[in-house]
Amino acid sequence: MSKNFFEIKDVTFAIGGKNKVNDVNISIKNEGDTICILGPSGIGKTTMLRTIAGLEKINKGEIILKDKVISSNKIHIEPEKRNIALSFQENSLFPHYSVDKNIHLGIKKNSSTDKNINSKEIIKILNIEDILSKYPHQISAGEAQRASLARSLISQPDLLLLDEPLSNVDQSFKEDIQVALKQLLNKNKITTIVVTHDSYEAFYLGSKCALVLDNEVKQFDDPYNVYHFPNSVEVVNFLNRGILLPAKVTGGNSLENDDLGIIKGKFIKHYPTGSNVKLLLQPEDLEHDDDSNLKLEVVDRKFRGTNFIYTLKTPSNRLIPVAVHSHHWEQHEVNEKFGIKRPIELEHIVCF
Length: 352
Known about the structure:
By secondary structure, the protein is an alpha/beta fold. It folds into 2 domains: 6-235, P-loop containing nucleotide triphosphate hydrolases (Rossmann fold), CATH 3.40.50.300; 242-349, CATH 2.40.50.140. 20% of the residues lie in helices and 34% in strands. It has a 6-stranded mixed β-sheet, sandwiched between helices. The relative contact order is 0.12.
C-alpha cells in the first residue's frame, strides 16, 4: 500500500508522441492537501493535468490515487471512472446551458460522497451570484473561469485539478479569491493540484511546489525551501528573486565579493576554502544603513506596497536588488548613494 493519498512514480508525460516532462516523482501525502505545479507556459504543466485526469495515456511509470493504480503502461482507468475533476484555463462551459445549470451538472454523480460541499457558499465566494441565469456567451472570461471552478468544486472529486484557475480574474479581485479558495479547499478537505506560472500564487496555495523546467521537475519542496534554498541556477533564474554574484570562499562560514567585501553566514553546502562560487543574493539579504561606508549608486526604484526594491550598481557594474520597508523615513532617488550595512551577515549562504 502507498503511504501517500496520491502519487506519481517515474512517469514521463507526453502528448502526440512527444515527451513534455520526464521521469516525474511527486506525491500528496494527506487527503485535503494542495500542491502546485509551477513553471513557464508551454513546459508541459497542462499535459500533466490531462494525463492525471485520464485524457492522455502513459507508457512509463504509475499514477496512484487512494492506493489504486489509475495509469500505467498496462492500466488506464477511463476519465469518467476516476472521480477527478479538471478545470481548464479556457472556457469549458456548455454553451447551451445557463451558468447555474453548468455549475450543478456534477452534483448527482457524486451524491453518495461523504463530503458536504455547500454550492451556495461556493457561488457566493466566487462572486458569481449575479450571472447564474446567463449563458456562457453573455459573461466575461473571468466569470466563465470562476463558474468552471465552481462546477469542479461542487462535483466533490477525490482529486481536483486546476489549470491556471485565476488567470482571467482581475488582479484587484484575485487575492480575495485565492484566500477564499484556500479556505474552501481546507475546510472540505479537497485534495488539489494547481497549475500556475505565478510563483506568488503557487507559494500561497500549495503546501508543496513542483517546479518544472527544461522537461523535468527541477525541485519538489515546500515553498519556503524553493524560494530560500533553490537547488539549481535554473530555479534561481525562473523565480527571478535575486542575482548570482561571483565570490571566493574564505573560510567555513565566510566568502568575499570584490564589490561587497566579506560576507558571513552558514553555508547550505560545503565548499573548500579558495573555491570560486556564484553567491545567491536576494532582495531581503542586505540591510540599508545611511551611515555605512559601503555606498552604491541607485539606478532604479520599484514601489511594492509594503516595500521598495532598490536596484544598486556596484563598482564592477553589477546590479543588486535590495528591499527596504516603504515606511523608511528617507527615500532614495535614482543616482543617489545608498548605504549597505556592514558587516554583511546572511542567515544562510546559497552558492552554485
